[in-house]
Structure prediction request, 137 residues.
Amino acid sequence: MTASPFAPRGTKDQIEEGAGFAPQFDRDGLIVCVTRERQSGDILMVAYMNEEALRLTLETGIAHYWSRSRQSLWRKGDTSGQVQTVTEMRTDCDQDAIELIVDAGGDGKACHTGRRSCFYRKVESAADGSITLSITE
Prediction:
């Protein structure tokens, strides 16, 4: 395995204000990633990355993720044609989440259901107190 290109975790101030990219992976070796489309700003999906997926995303400029269900590395678009070209990567204040801003390839449908976004349902409360989902696209 390739040596980690990431900075070591430092002090709170170094993590929050410093220039070193020191992502904080969880106990399973994963970090959450929110992916937005560059043109619209819409959230396309939320996925996870392990260290290898994050490193490959940085090296290639193509989004790579870790599939928790398949327990395998996944380059977005290999089977669907929906390649996500990264135009910008951000991290949050404590570096335990990643935001990718991408140009969505193919027909732009990021969701495995064939929709443009994985966020296609709205949670609604009915007058009787029940909670339902309605499809928004």
In short: The chain has one domain: 27-135. The two ends are 42 Å apart (CA to CA). Residues 27-135 form a domain with the Ubiquitin-like (UB roll) fold (CATH 3.10.20.810). The chain has two helices and eight strands.
